[in-house]
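Archive transcription. Copying these from loose printouts into the bound notebook so they stop getting lost. Printout 1 of 2:
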Amino acid sequence: MRDFSVDPDELVVAADHANTVSDAFTHLVWKDERIGDWWSEATDQPSDEHLATAIATYRASLRAATLRLAAQAEHLGAGLRASATDYLHADTPLTPHPDPSDD
């Protein structure tokens, strides 16, 4: 039986370089040469067990990528909230930046 396990480091790479969950999933599924090799073996028909293993692995991969992207979004959201709080509680009045074309 083929090994459909995904290296945990690969999940991190996929999630870090993905703009969406779909991008991460695509990276893990279609760029994995093992899948291409597996499907190209026309004489070796995939069994139900092969398919079930592949589906379970990629569901786990998608879930891991989703959690990673959600954590990144939460981190970004926390930073934005902190910036907004600083802005709202600033003691100094806001002044426009001078326009360099006025010189």
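Printout 2 of 2:
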Amino acid sequence: MATKMAYKQASGGVRLNTGPLIFGAELIGVGTVLLMAGFAVGSMTLMSAGRRWLGTLDQPPAEIVRHHWEKTKAATLAGASAWQSSGPARSSH
């Protein structure tokens, strides 16, 4: 006994079996929901690990950045001062 399949006549005379199309759309929807759930769980795990890591630091991140910024400014000023006091560049040729 043959099973009855749902076919739709598309423009251009192509006959489409709509059952697999509907099933494919449902799978895409379920996959999207699973993707969003996985993204949420992964994001929460990374944020929790980041908070724990920040808690283990001796200094707050803003203080570390400020310290490195001051070192960078001092090195830049020292380099600029040395460059300006060196005079014109001499060629070794």
